[in-house]
Amino acid sequence: MEALFYYIVKISSVLLLFFSCYQLFLRKETLFQFNRFFLLSGLILSALFPLLYITITINAPIFDLTNTNVAIPSLSETSTVNDFTHYSFLITLYLIGAFILFIKLFRQGLDLNRVLNTGERVKLPATVHIKTKATIQPFSFFKSIVYNPSLHSEKELEAIVAHEEVHAAQLHSLDIILMEVFIILQWFNPIVWLYRIAVKQNLEFLADTENHQIKTNKKAYQYILLQRAVGNHHLSIVNPFFNSLIKKRIIMINQQKSHKLKAFKSLLILPFLAFFLVSFNVREVYSYKNISQSDSIQNTIELLIDKNTSDSKLLKIKADLAKDKFDFSYTTVRNKNGEIKNISIEISGGNKKNGEVSSRFNSVSDNDTIDPTYILIETDNNSILFRTGDVTNKATKIKKSTTGNNKKISISTTTTEDYDFKIVEKEDNGFMFVTTDGKEGPLFYIDGKKSDAKTLNNLDESTIKSMNVIKGGEAIEKYGKEAKHGVIEIITEE
Known about the structure:
Strand order of the largest sheet: 2-3-5-4-6
Low-confidence stretches: 61-82, 290-297, 391-422, 424-438
Largest sheet: 5 strands, mixed
Shape: elongated
Number of helices: 14
Structural class: alpha+beta
Radius of gyration: 37 Å
Helix content: 25-40%
Distance between the termini: 48 Å
Mean pLDDT: 77
């Protein structure tokens, strides 16, 4: 229902653009054929334009920490404000109004059908004249022209028929019916009612200026219009000859013809339509690559350094990483047995296309020697992760960070300008992707204190004890309006 609500609002916005452009630049011009095309385009494009989207594909490399020793015991589900009730009420009100107008249009259709089928029919090559005895003003509906001969003089009928023949030949009834459909769909929008007046006015201007009677005797034609300034017909889906727009019609009949180049003023609507697309119809599509086991082996470098790792082994690691454009620098402190007591590691470089990366690690251990240190490098997206712990067995060396509902959390940072911080929440049915560039993004709270992406970027992931993601209404309720993009709460080990 929310999608339908926004679609209806977008239709109103585009229709307002066309109506404003028409009122400002075209309303007083005698370019009636072009004005008809412009107004019809406004109706059609207002229905189609909201369905057009500019799609931006974002390649989002994901490092899925299916295995890690960072425990993430809790993950809050999305707690969005339940707007279903509000949208339901608005949509229900909208549908009631649309239904009432549809019934009204349907009844007009029945009345029109009765009039068309009860009069005397005279078939002509281009039109069908229906002579009725009902007291109604003349009108046309597609190829049918309806009038009561007893209510008009011969000269009046000649002018009436000439006028209505233009309506019939140019199928103006299509414009009227399309406009009535829009009235039903946009009944709540005052612009659409004004738009209908503009459409009908322009059609009358067209029929007044292009019929053969006015070309023969303009003065007599205007006199006939003045004789019957107001009629009593109440069908909105027809083209009546007499109506309350007589004054404007006479003014347009005598208006000096506008130069065709003035139609180019309507092109001023194009930047506004482009702005509408860019502002409201941009859809970001994230492209995720599922890495198979073989791909993982090919694009992932796994290293294990423990207390017994020799200097020659470290030099070999350095040489191997250099082939993949990573610089491996290290400093070791060994005890009297030659075992590594302390180690500092810095890895930098990588694929420049994805932005070079740099990561540091300093060993911290309660023992006399270092704990086994596991290094995982993703060469495709330049991800570098350090993990310490018991890694003697691959099946048990890394503890899964999987919470309920088969969700997995991964954190990654980058030195490129794409983002300062990224968190990806993976579920069976899709992804939730959050990035921040320091301007608009989630709030960060580390150990209960408000922080920022830069601080988080420098946070040693091995110190993270738990992480909690709060979104939607729950985040706003807890931290205020500034938390509208969500909050990430991180608790570190003391």
